[in-house]
Specification:
Layout lengths: L16 E5 L3 H7 L4 H18 L7 E8 L7 H25 L1 E6 L7 H13 L6 E9 L1 H17 L10 H7 L10 E4 L18 E4 L9 H12 L12
Parallel strand pairs: 1-2, 1-5, 2-4, 3-4, 5-6
The structure holds 3-methylbut-3-enyl trihydrogen diphosphate (2 copies) and magnesium ion.
Length: about 250
């Protein structure tokens, strides 16, 4: 059995791109009789810890789902609270990410975010663009359908303008028009909190991802649990439509 992060022989390969649906912050707080935002703050602390642990676990790409296109349905207080947590995260972690060689980027539709947050997002992307020890991507106002819709409109505009022939639209061309154009597809998608759905996360990119669901609420998710999940992943036989290799 391979340990997490080890690159070994046979079929055991580490999960290089791990994507996480960080769910359960609200329940974690409610269970303790606290406001939901307390759970989100604790959740942000967990993100820092997981980001710090990721490179030693063999993860090169880490993508986390922080706010979906559907999360605007929540109360104004919760939405604004989350936006301020995102802004503070960038401000407080910027130096550390730069010192540790972490490249931070964002996926999702930024047009609906406020200017201050957008400026912080653009600033940290620019500041860390030369780093590659860990590629850390945060999905904010992200929805898989919204992303495919925006890409489709852009392709349709190219076709209508005569710049693109419909036959030239390939699998790869679509991938290259998504927010994740510069990211490999995820190897493993983890969802915390016991829900077993994707909630619109990386729909196109996860076609052959492995999924892991854990009942742990996100504020309780530790690097140790991540290591356990990764070692299970290393023993899976990913066939991609072919036949077993074992
Ligand atoms: C995940 O936790 C964080 C976001 C969706 C922003 P939730 O806020 O969804 O927590 P639960 O699912 O209500 O417990
Ligand atoms: C998914 O969680 C989105 C994020 C983790 C940011 P939700 O809590 O919004 O998903 P549903 O509503 O349970 O499907
Ligand atoms: Mg939830």
């Amino acid at each position: 059995m391979g340990t997490a992060g080890s690159t070994t022989s046979q079929n055991i390969r580490p999960a290089e791109h791990v994507a996480i649906i960080m769910d359960g912050n609200g329940r974690w707080a409610t269970q303790k009789g606290w406001p939901r935002l307390v759970g989100h703050r604790k959740g942000a602390e967990r993100v820092k810890q997981i980001v710090r642990a990721a490179p030693d676990l063999g993860i090169r790409w880490l993508t986390v789902y922080a706010f979906s296109t559907e999360n605007w349905k929540r109360s104004t207080e919760e939405v604004l609270g989350l936006m301020s947590i995102f802004a503070r995260y960038i401000e407080r972690e910027a130096d550390r990410m730069a010192a540790e060689g972490i490249r931070m980027r964002f996926i999702g539709d930024r047009s609906r975010l406020d200017t201050r947050l957008r400026d912080l997002m653009n600033g940290i992307e620019d500041r860390t663009k030369g780093f590659s020890r860990l590629n850390f991507t945060v999905a904010i106002n992200y929805g898989g359908r919204d992303e495919v819709l925006r890409a489709t409109r852009a392709l349709a505009a190219d076709v209508a303008a005569g710049r693109l022939a419909p036959e030239a639209i390939t699998d790869q061309l679509i991938s290259s028009r998504l927010d994740t154009a510069d990211l490999p597809d995820p190897d493993l998608v983890i969802r915390t909190s016991g829900e077993t759905r994707t909630s619109n996360f990386l729909l196109w990119q996860s076609a052959y991802a492995e999924y892991e669901f854990t009942p742990t609420l996100w504020p309780d998710f530790t690097p140790d649990e991540l290591a356990t999940i990764l070692s299970r992943f290393g023993n899976r036989d990913r066939r991609f439509g072919g036949v077993a290799t074992a």
